[in-house]
Amino acid sequence: MSREADPAAPFQTLVELCRHHASVRGPELAYRWLRDGEVEDRTLTFSQLDLEARTIAAQLQASGLSGGRALLLYGSGLDFISAFVGCLYGGVTPVPVSAPRRNQGLSKLHRIALDSQATMVLTTETLLEDAHIRCREDSVLGTLRCFSTDSLPSALAERWQEPDVSGETLALLQYTSGSTGSPKGVAATHGNLLENQSMIAEAFGHSDETVFVGWLPLHHDMGLIGNVLQPLYLGIPCTLMAPEAFAQKPVRWLRAISRYGGTTSGAPNFAYELCVKRVPEERREGLDLGSWKVAYNGAEPIRPETMERFAQAFRPYGFREAAFYPCYGLAEATLFVTGGLSDAPPVTSTFDGMALNRRRVAEAGDDPSGCRRLVGCGRPWKGLKVIAVNPATSVACEPDEIGEIWISGKSVAQGYENQPGLSEATFHAHLADTGEGPFLRTGDLGFVRDGQLFVTGRLKDLIIIRGRNHYPQDIEWTVGLSHPFLRPGCGAAVALEANGEDDRLVVIQEIDRKGAAALASEGSQAAEALSLAVRAAVVRQHGLRVHDLVLIHPGTLPKTSSGKVRRRASCEQYLNGTLPMVYPEIQSTGVVDRQRAGARHASHRVQTPGES
Amino acid sequence: MATPTAEEIRDWMVLYLGDLLGMDPKEIDTATSFEAYGLDSTAAAGMSGDLGDWLGIKLDAALASEFTTVDALAAHLVEHLREEAR
User: CATH number for the A14-332 domain, one of 2.60.120.200, 3.30.420.10, 3.40.1010.10, 3.40.50.12780?
Assistant: First the structure.
């Protein structure tokens, strides 16, 4: 018989929870790691995890580091999980970060170390030497204590002392890709994490028979809160592989679900799309997706076309459309915010596209070309409140009005570390007329209809591609510095929605007079050199492909009177073809041209001419 | 399959990239970096997976970040295949 969904309600902290699992189901499998996404490499039972965590915690306690913050610098693998739990056992706040690749600088790590006031770096033996050499050169990172957590003698565990922590103790600083110079660390307590876990368990219909499979990066909110902590919360097994293993061969994800009878597994929309494209029929043989009950889809816009294509491709292999679980969440609310009933099929509704562009909700008219299909992201759970609010007046929206999504409840995080002003504005909003609050302002736009939350876009100019947030100003900064002919501060990065596929990045950038002269004399060769420099820099710094680069004359980028880039106006001019391009006849640089990339501007839903 | 030559591996990659990027394979310069063609890490990992399948060997997902052009990657793979054959 299966247990009820809320096994851990009596626990105040994750430390109590882990200790409990170690005592009642110690020898049971907690995590299994698949090397190359295929080969069983390492496993951790609940008691092994507890032992490793006590060992790491004892080392940190003996070093006098309790109460501090630790950067968790790990490659893909289970060592990250032991270190995360080890920090909590040691009364240390974990700060998960991605290990910088060799060709990436340390600037991001440097800023996070500074902002989080970390006093230590936890890593593995293999990464330690490299981390040491690279960090030594850095003014901040060089001062941190470095520990490799995978080579500590387990005898240390005897010396572990239970930390003095409560539900109000900080349990995680989750850094989101902040804009240049200002990383934002979302501060979540043990109470926040447990409340969110309890919501996920109830909404996803989880029990002790749930089996997790996943490949999302463990240092990201969805990988950590979803794939690492939810199995730990439930006390059930989870099979994991590296994101690179999935990217290399997406079929590995589906094979792992088949092999281990996964019941819950999910990813942002792009991953489902990648499976359709990169797992052709001949590679589907032997798949058995009948066990899959919750295929969650979140963190980036959810496309009905993707779900249809995926269901069609994998229905013959046991996949049920009702398994799709569209959901909405963000790190500022710990992670999960809304989702549907786990056994119901996803809700897709059709609305009047023109009305949506004006932030109004209306049923679709007779003209099918003017319709827009949106996927419902379900409803809030366990007393969380989600409303749409007019962002200009801070008054709750009418039912037919689109507004900013505001949230209040116990899993809303404490704020951004070290940013009192921004935290106050983001986490402590109140309705202007009733004074109700505090609410978290999400920056996302949407509306609630028939109990479903529909997300229509982003209030901020946030660019979201493949589930990752990119601030346009970061990309513009990179572009401006990528070639001497380009004018820093005079570029706009915008995302275009492309028929049911990932959003596409378009960069509009001013060149200087020397650049204009070079283009005039050397023509396409100079344009090509500029294009290569920009594309290479953007891939290196942001992992993004520039789909179209438009070079414009100096002083022509739309800006406000105070000199701020007007991205929406820039995007409109781009779509109308009215940007003052430098020698348009030689700018055939876009891999995808405007017609093909065309469609709507993702953030602002600008319509292209000819498209209704 | 007989062990492919560097030229055959280059040809495979050029066709693959042309298809992926929507470009005429003739336009792809084998000495230009994958980054410059805008290949992101997911796409680069995907290429290593498909290339490994074609060659019948296991390739590291991050290979294209170490050998950053068609020429460099092909040269590395020929050497790698030669060592495997020994």
Answer: 3.40.50.12780
